[in-house]
Amino acid sequence: MTSSTARSTCCNSKGALYTNVQRFSIHDGGGIRTVVFLKGCPFRCPWCCNPENLSFSPQTVWHAPRCIHCSMPHDARGADACPRSPKDCPTGAKELLGVAADPEELLGVVLRDRVFYEESNGGVTLSGGECLAGPSLSFTLEFLAACKREGLDTAVETTLALPLDRPELLAAVTSTFLVDFKIADRQESLRVTGVDPCLRDANLERLLSTGARVVARMPVIPGFTDNADNVRANVDRMCELGIFRVDVLPFHQMGESKYDSAGLGYELAGRPQLGEKDVEDVVVTCERAGLRAVVHGE
């Protein structure tokens, strides 16, 4: 599937596709939050922990530990080997990912948690995938506007490395932008992930000029983003832009099993996770530059 075809399927007659509504999250924008993961991303970070959201189309995945082999041989593997439809799978081993919803429908889903937002100063966070990619941007704007009308705090997790014609419209409905700072060198970033940090920074300058609240997010990935020069370059850019807080995100393997379920290869399979002690030097670099560094985010 070409990227143009993939993007055209991201939104359908109902609006957009989402794969998960994660309730009671505490690291994605402040307070207790409901995080909605939209499907589709034009980028390919080797360490992505949500590979089920890379495709812009619905997809069927197979969870091996849940399979009781009721309809296929015990030595068979994968969604294609099972003749049952996902809705007929008795254990959920075969699952269709990608629920269609329009903004008002999704609003109804997140409003179930309103009492938790009010008690914790929390709210709703849109993630992905990339929630600002292609037609998803229109859906995101409408959904966030609906949340704002209900008095909900809103946040988006984004690379921000996409064309934004009128970023002020996004700023008007978004309380907090959680923006990725991964590989600082432009050519290396484009080669490894497809993300253009120059486009990100141009968007950031326009958003910050509106008074938007921006929190930088810096994943610490062994062999990709963890070297001292890359960390310093990211920190310098944050300071130049006028960002005051950075979430330092140690590498984890919470998405490793998802690659096997989706039939995808995973470049970082088996690599050890990082703990807070492993990112102490990164935190020190951030704090010496005057940034408030929060490990894992809040």
**CATH class category label:** Alpha Beta
Helicity range: 25-40%
**Element order, helices and strands?**
HEEEEEHHEHEHEHHEHEHHE
CATH arch. level architecture: Alpha-Beta Barrel
The biggest sheet amounts to: 9 strands, mixed
Distance between the termini: 37 Å
What order do the helices and strands come in, and which of them pair?
Layout: H1 3-8, E1 16-25, E2 33-38, E3 59-62, E4 94-97, E5 99-101, H2 103-110, H3 114-120, E6 123-127, H4 136-149, E7 153-158, H5 167-173, E8 176-180, H6 186-192, H7 197-209, E9 213-220, H8 228-241, E10 245-250, H9 256-261, H10 280-288, E11 292-295
Parallel strand pairs: 2-6, 6-7, 7-8, 8-9, 9-10, 10-11
Antiparallel strand pairs: 1-2, 1-5, 3-4
Q: Summarize this, please?
A:
By secondary structure, this protein is α/β, with parallel strands linked by helices.
Architecture overview:
- With 298 residues, the chain is of the alpha/beta class.
- The chain has a single domain, classed as Aldolase class I (TIM Barrel), CATH 3.20.20.
- It contains ten helices and eleven strands.
- The chain has a nine-stranded mixed sheet.
- The chain starts with a helix and ends with a strand.
- Residues 1-13 have low confidence and may be disordered.
Defining key terms:
single chain, 298 residues, alpha/beta, TIM Barrel, 11 strands, globular, disordered N terminus
